[in-house]
Each structure stands twice: as C-alpha cells, then as structure tokens.
Amino acid sequence: MGQKNCSNVANLSKKLKVYINPFDFTLDKDKLFNITTGEAASSQITEFLLNIEHNGNVAGDESDIMDEESELESEDSVSDDTDSENN
Description:
- The chain has helices at 3-18, 43-50, 52-86.
- By secondary structure, it is mostly helical.
- The protein folds into two domains: 1-38, no CATH class; 51-87.
C-alpha cells in the first residue's frame, strides 16, 4: 500500500473513532444513523429517505398523466372551436 493510501486509512480511522462507525455490524440494520451524532433517524425520516426514489417516480407518473389530460382537453377545446367556426 502506498504512503498516500496509508495516510488516508489512518485519517479515516481517526474520524471513525470520533464519529459513529457506519460499518459497525452491531448497528440496527433497519435504522439510518447520523454519522456525526450517532443518533438514529426517526421512523418517519427513515421511511421518507428510503422511499424517495419510488415516491419521485410516482409523482412523475402522476405529472405525466396530468400533462396528457391537459393536452387532451386542449385538443378538445381546439376541436370544439373549429366545429363552431364551420357551422
């Protein structure tokens, strides 16, 4: 191992002694921990963070559906206006 790598490992070891060790196998695997304070996040925050990608995808899908509905309404409105002009 190079001198720079040894230095990086030593720095990491020092920081892990001051902060919580995120690799500690005794930590509860069902909780998220703040590395600097060692405190577990609340269940609400944990659920929010662990589901953020899914929730974002759902919100994006809902937005796409709303956009499609809006486009259809606009097309219907233009079609109604054209029909009115032709009569």
